[in-house]
Design brief:
- The protein has 108 residues and is an alpha+beta fold.
- The chain has one domain: 2-Layer Sandwich (Alpha-Beta Plaits), CATH 3.30.70.
- Helices cover 26% and strands 27% of the residues.
- It has 2 helices and 4 strands; from the N terminus they run E-H-E-E-H-E.
- A 4-stranded antiparallel beta sheet has the order 2-3-1-4.
- The chain is globular, with a radius of gyration of 15 Å.
- The chain starts with a strand and ends in a 13-residue tail after the last strand.
Length: 108
């Protein structure tokens, strides 16, 4: 199982959700107000000096092929669809050793 982390400009919320739905991803959380400082572009601290903020997604994916499809789609967005560098998505993944929801926990 993999955790996928995506963050981008808040105006991309609907587009990111569409990409998740197109990839048949069902399990995710949205962190609606993330202040960020990236390598590219000005900080987004949601202040008068540094306006704007990001949205962040945490996505749990158990099917390896879905992870690959989603990453390919996100890369295509950055290469072909992002209007400029301020719309580029930051994406990373890591392995999940434990994941349970509700009564799924079996004490492992």
């Amino acid at each position: 199982m993999e955790m996928v982390y995506i963050t981008g400009k808040v105006s991309l919320r609907r587009k990111i959700i569409e990409m998740l739905e197109d990839s048949k991803i069902r399990d995710y959380q949205i962190l609606d107000h993330a202040v960020v400082k990236n390598k590219i572009g000005p900080p987004r601290f949601d202040t008068e000096i540094w306006p704007g903020y990001n949205i962040a997604f945490l996505i749990q994916v158990s099917e390896e092929e879905k992870v690959g499809q989603l990453l390919d789609r996100l890369k295509r967005f950055n290469v072909d669809e992002a209007y400029n560098e301020t719309e580029l998505l930051t994406v990373c993944t890591w392995s999940l050793n434990n994941y349970f929801y509700g009564q799924d926990y079996q004490g492992h």
